[in-house]
Amino acid sequence: MIFLNILVTGGAGFIGRWVVKKLLDDGHKVWILDNLSNGSKANIDEFRNNSNLMEFVEGDIKDIATLDRLFLNKFDLCYHLAASINVQDSIDDPITTFQNDTVGTFNVLEQCRKYNVKIVFMSTCMVYDRAKDDKGIDENHPVKPASPYAGSKIAGENMVLSYWYAYKLPVVVIRPFNTYGPMQKTNGEGGVVAIFIKRSIDGLPLNIYGDGYQTRDLLYVEDCAEFVVQAGYSDKVNGEIVNAGLGRDISINELALLISGDENKIQHVPHIHPQSEIQKLLCNPQKAKDLLGWYPKTSLEEGIAKTKEWIARQAKT
Predict the structure, then answer these.
(1) Burial 253-284 (b: 16+ CB within 10 A, else e)
(2) Whole-number Å distance between alpha carbons of 79 and 167
(3) pLDDT beneath 70: ranges in the chain
(4) Longest distance between any two alpha carbons in the chain, whole Å
(5) How far apart are CA 104 and CA 108, in angstroms?
(6) How many Å apart are CA 308 and CA 260, to the nearest integer?
(7) 148-184 confidence digits (pLDDT tens)
(8) Distance between CA 60 and CA 82 in Å, rounded?
(9) How far does CA 189 lie from the centroid of its chain?
(10) Residue 42: CB atoms within 10 Å
(11) Which residues neighbour 88 within 8 Å (Cβ) at sequence distance 6 or greater?
């Protein structure tokens, strides 16, 4: 393998730190840019003594001067994960999400164009309309920006792809489905799996928004990080949009029961923003398998067990 100079924006975030870990394990030199609005220095503490972690910059993708300085390092590859990621927050405060997810992405893109750096743009399954059947959502499925988060990500995707067509800049747009696992926040900003596990451990009821029949395709974070990294390594996906998911969906009611084991611990509460709900999310990951040879290695049950073990360990420290 050729060793590369790689920038990971949002590298101190939940998925970002697993991407950084994989890149360091593969022997690359890694720079991290993160403003710590979603991420945490604690997420990358274990890499502090790794000589291939070249620099952690606490900075913002909206700050051109910071990007100007960083890109002097002559990167070979940029994984762009920095973003505002909360759907509900985007409805309450669309400006912040647009500035971070669309304008910030443009800023990073311009640097990549200037230095001809391949960019892997982290989008989301939340751009899709609901799955219509059990074949799942492939990359040709209709999009439906049901929140400013989804709208900002679609705008970012279109800008990224425009640089492929206009400038032949190597780009790839990736749309992972709902990712969970160790290091995810367990408070209201976290994912449903982490929140449910933490509340179950604490003996609290598991709150489900709405009727709980909405489904999610849940992807274990190390499988997701492997997918993200492979999308950067491979030229086969340049100019493409590629999904990643387990290829299995589960209703939120079933998920809550799987985690708590007691239906009396489950309660339904009014949805904060029901207009943003996607009733059925099920990934068809065939394209990732065909182009990257990627497939998820961790079952939902195994992933939940690993996540539960990590959260229980955190609760004791």
Answers:
(1) bebbbebbeeeebbeeeeeeeeebebebbbbb
(2) 19
(3) 189
(4) 58
(5) 6
(6) 11
(7) 999 999 999 999 999 999 999 999 999 999 999 999 9
(8) 9
(9) 13
(10) 10
(11) 272, 273, 276
- Residues forming the active site: 149
Say which residues have a Cβ less than 8 Å from residue 256's Cβ, sequence separation at least 6. Answer: 196, 206, 208, 212, 266
pLDDT at position 4, please? 97
Which stretches within the chain are classed as H helix? 14-25, 64-70, 87-92, 94-98, 104-115, 148-167, 192-201, 221-233, 252-260, 286-292, 300-316
Residue 272, pLDDT score? 84
Q: Which residue is listed with tokens 């309660």?
A: 267
Which tokens is 238 given?
């340049």
pLDDT at 189: 66
Closest C-alpha among 44, 30, 28, 35 to residue 10:
35
Amino acid identity of 74?
K
Q: Map tokens 């945490």 to a residue.
A: 40
Residue linked to tokens 């697993």: 18
Inter-helix orientation angle 252-260/300-316, to 10°:
50
